[in-house]
Amino acid sequence: MDCKNCGKKDLSGDELAIYRKLVNRGAKEFLCIDCLAEYFKCDRSEIEDRIRYYRESGHCTLFV
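Given the sequence above, the corresponding structure tokens read:
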């Protein structure tokens, strides 16, 4: 999958998962972490922190 905004190639599983978690569970198009941070008007580190939180919590099947 590629970023629908900037065209970044081969998005990671975490990038796909966080987009689905925060934007649209049934998404067919995705944003990379940088574009997602821009979309939410926050720092990239906040998105990365959220990914880490979901991964470590073990409660979200998107991050397995």
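The chain has one domain: 13-63. Try to locate this feature in the token string yourself.
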